[in-house]
Amino acid sequence: MSIESKKHSLGFLDGVRGVAMMIVVLHHFGLGFFPAINYLNPEKIHLGNGGAEMLIAKTPLNLFFNGGFAVSIFFVLSGFVLSYKFHQSGSRKLLTEYAAKRYFRLLLPVAGSVVICYLLHLFGLFSHQHVGDITKSQDWFHGLYSDMKGLGDVLKNIFLDVFLNNDNRYNAVLWTMTIEFLGSLLLFSFLALTGNNKKTILLHILVAAVILCTDKKFYAAFILGSLISKLFVDGFSFPKGWKGISIKLVLLIAGIYFSSYPQGFFTEQSIWKPLAWSWTNSYELFHVLGAFCILFVICFDRNFIRFFSIKPFLYLGKISFSFYLLHLAVMCSLGCFIFLQLWKPGTYFVPFLISFLASMTVSFLVSHFYYQFVDKAGIRFSEKMGRFITKGDVSE
Q1: How many folded domains does the chain comprise?
Q2: 395 domain-assigned
Q3: Between the CA of residue 211 and those of 30, 91, 204, what are the distances in Å?
């Protein structure tokens, strides 16, 4: 899911992706150790009377722990980056090349992560099953890495099920890969059919609106990302002065409100009660809309572009795919093992903090080398396969 464009003007998107990746990581630690933050459930508090946890859960502060929002950012960013050169050139051949290599771009990093998780399971190095009873997160922890079978099933999972059947049994974070892969193909098909003309913007809006009315709302994020990309290429800018500032502010407030919509079941107790409409059926609608609003403002504001272009964010973006693929396995093995060794009745935060810091340190180290030796290899492999598959194509 790493941004592959090397255009200097798009470097800030890597920074945005890096920040979104960290939100996913915090989301998983929250699910595992402070479930009240994500579920808005007062029965799952851990610290004192739960004031701090419920403050985060009941306010937009939960944005920093909101995994649904973060993956929506991933999908909108993918839509932006994968459509960017097409909006510049209008070349349908480019879409064919992108479609040909998309599967292979994701395959090697995904396969490596599945093998790592399978080996951790095989050697009994996962400790999360025992932690759930302590952290009040049994329903989540007990479902992770719990249905692993033999080598044949591992290979089927790697080459087929992860990308087509939403099967994340061997690495829980891979639930996004089916959406990432099929959403990319949907985007390429949409662009090939609609072309690059004056009606493109309206078509983006109409198609995204239709998808948001289905139960596949995350797929609309790719179309909305392409819409931002189209406007970016066309040189869109907000009005100058207070009018432009006001529009940005409204979009940001709306984006934060939508994006922080909780993934739990207690919205009637919160500021999001007005959004608890029965027809929406899930948080996905609001997270996609929120991610779109926030990224729209970021892409057309120099201050945000400068902010997300600082080196730490760019580095996070560079290793974000690797970190995303590996961090949960590190947390459920090393992190949970450390927590179990340190935890005693009456203690909680210190064992968690040490577990968190150790997991983050190891995740950074492993992700750095995974990026260098696996993720980069995946990019090179996809380029070769893309050229091989489209070798006989003729230009338009």
Answers
A1: 1
A2: no
A3: 30, 25, 11
